[in-house]
Amino acid sequence: MKVSFYIVILFALCPFVVGAEQISSIPLLEMNAIKWTSEEVSFIKELHQKGSIKIATKISFAIYLPQSDGTITGFHYNVLKEFADLLKIKIHVKLITWNDYFYKEGEDLERVKKDPDYAFVPSLIKNVDLYLDGITALPWREKLFDIIKFVPSRQMIVSRKENLPLNLSDLNNKVCAMVKNTSMEYNHTRSLI
Question: Total structural domains in the chain?
Answer without folding.
Answer: 3
